[in-house]
Amino acid sequence: MPRMRYAEDLTVGTVFELGERQLSAEEIVAFARDWDPQPFHVDPAFAEQTDFGGLIASGVQTIAVAQRLLFDAFFAGTAVIAGVAVDGLRMRRPVRPSTIITGRAEIDEQRLDDDGRGLIGFTVKLVDQDGDTLMTHRTTMLVSRRPTAAYT
Q: At 50, is the secondary structure helix, strand, or coil?
């Protein structure tokens, strides 16, 4: 089992490379039917006639993909207590069925508190297979500090 990361381990400048994900047209339509039924997300023929020129994923689905990639690369091995904030969310380019989504998270803030917790801030950038930016945001999360007698 991998070693757990605590707030002390998450230093400014640390980078987590995210995995890859590609959404199929069927996944895009199924998600949108439930959560964001805009016609350009659920109707490929309609989407062809829009400025997008074809089916695109909901921004909400893009956020969900980012969350999963972050979990797999970063959160799963980290003593996360809770998310605190998501700031500056920007959708830069649409995600299409052919888009390969990847990215990185870089820690830009580490604030260790005396109560056994720390605030960790990081920027997230999703890119496509050509390196073009799809989405950016900054997240702050509350993370446990390494257990010591002082906190227990």
A: coil
